[in-house]
Amino acid sequence: MNVGLEHYLTVSAMLFCLGLLGVILRRNVLVIYMSLELMLNAANLALVAFSRFNDNLTGQTMVFFIITVAAAEVAVGLALIVALYRKRQSAHVEDLTSLKL
Amino acid sequence: MILPDALFYLFAFLTLLFGALVVANPFSRNPVTSAMFLVLTICAMAGLFVLLNAFFLAAVQILVYAGAVMVLFLFVIMLLDLKEEQRRKINLFGIVTGSGAVLGLGFLLTRTIWGGDFSQTATPKVIGDTKALGLELFTKGQFLLPFEIVSVLLLVAMVGVILLSKKELK
Fold it and tell me: What dihedral do alpha carbons A23, B27, A82, A67 form, nearest 10°?
């Protein structure tokens, strides 16, 4: 069977699920952030696959913008994590529960 | 058409394997290991992009993600000086319900993908090289405003990061 759109979308869905599993199961803020990047990349893969199999470059332009926004997002998020670590001396989500009622 | 298919399966397997090692590594719980496997995941995914004829995006993926973003991650890991994550009391209920929910989502997505009827051309011709993508971005006019907004967003992010990383956060 020839590799088609479905194959790429399946890889993308599995990668997204892996990232979601990391966000739910891991307790280190940095590893959770890396899992988020994984999920973002899975979405990128789906967009590129759609763009390729529909003969339309718009999807790839979208991915170009997503990569730019993701770079800005990583910079801000990591700065937040560093500021949080300075205050609490911990990068463990169970130590960061001051919003919990 | 046998080599591209074999390469697809190779890169897909590598992407998923390294992705799994980012999330749960049986040998090490060190964040540096996760970061290194994330680099490998991104490189394998760039291989998939090449197979999809998205050459420019494959290069950008390696330059921006595997280069810039991961260096940022490693700098922060170094800065925080994280010890090997010590084992804490594992919340079994959380693990079971979390994995169950994710498995359900994965089942749903796969079922939708294989049961759906996507419009797709049998012989795709689109080539995502630098020239084609540049023409798409700059000549048609529909992406000029988003492009400028993204450049302002990068500036805003830079100012925000400088403000956040000041010593005394008010």
Answer: -60
Which is more confident, A54 or B84?
A: A54
- Whichever domain contains B66, its CATH number is 1.20.120.1200
Q: Summarize pLDDT for B45-91 with one digit per residue, the tens.
A: 999 999 999 999 999 999 999 999 999 999 998 888 776 556 667 77
For residue A64, the chain B residues in CB contact (below 8 A) are 57, 60, 133, 137
Domain ranges of chain A: 5-95
Q: Residue A92 forms beta bridges with which residues?
A: A28
Residue B39 touches chain A, beta carbons under 8 Å: no
Interface predicted TM-score of the whole assembly (ipTM), two decimals? 0.91
Q: Nearest-CA distance from B27 to chain A in Å?
A: 15
Domain count, chain B: 1
